[in-house]
Design a protein that fits this description.
The chain is mostly helical. The protein is built from six helices and two strands; from the N terminus they run ββαααααα. The longest helix is centred in the last third of the chain and has 28 residues. The protein starts with 11 loop residues before the first strand and ends with a helix.
Length: about 200
């Protein structure tokens, strides 16, 4: 490609979905990208992910009073900080588009959706009742399940026609995918170490 001045212009590469290759696009296609709009699937993803993150915060809040492990406390703090920030970002994204954003305790309301990977009320009660190494094991198993649910939510979003294409949405979904995979790996190691 060359510009009007005759100099070669660098290629424009559109990133692919997590795990998928990018593709080279022309300048017109790049301009069209700026007009990509959010879809109902994007809105549902953000609303559902707020519920999902809120339960992770509930789980992380149990850690300090139930474990003796400093590594567990650090993990819970990382989860608390990152997911609190992401909830704020998701609420802002929804509100900026005139969409409803679930409140911080909406996931406790009767009829609230149980998103993929979320613990049931009975599983949360069992986690809250545990202490020491038993708590650590239940927490790690539950949070691995929980994070796996987030990965499936990202997969479902990107599989929906036209969804996940708005630049801010795509960046967030990609970050969720990468962050959750990294934490699953870290927690899997911690869980294996409990078995020693």
């Amino acid at each position: 490609m060359t510009c009007a001045c005759g100099a070669a212009t660098p290629p424009i590469v559109q990133p692919g979905a997590p795990g998928s290759p990018g593709r080279t696009i022309d300048a017109k296609a790049a301009r069209d990208q700026s007009r990509i709009r959010y879809t109902p699937a994007d809105v549902a993803f953000m609303q559902g992910m707020i519920h999902h993150h809120a339960q992770a915060l509930d789980m992380a809040a149990l850690v300090p009073s139930r474990t003796a492990s400093e590594d567990m406390k650090k993990l819970a703090k990382r989860i608390d900080v990152s997911q609190t920030d992401e909830i704020g970002m998701m609420r802002h994204w929804l509100e900026a588009r005139g969409q409803d954003a679930p409140g911080p305790h909406a996931h406790h309301e009767p009829g609230a959706p149980l998103m993929p990977g979320m613990l049931t009320a009975a599983e949360m009660d069992r986690l809250a009742a545990a202490r020491g190494v038993d708590f650590d094991r239940l927490f790690l198993e539950g949070m691995i399940q929980h994070h796996g649910g987030a990965l499936s939510m990202v997969r479902d979003l990107l599989a929906a026609p036209g969804a996940g294409q708005e630049p801010e949405m795509f960046a967030f979904a990609s970050d969720v995918d990468a962050d959750q995979r990294m934490e699953i790996d870290r927690m899997s190691v911690m869980l294996r170490e409990l078995g020693k």
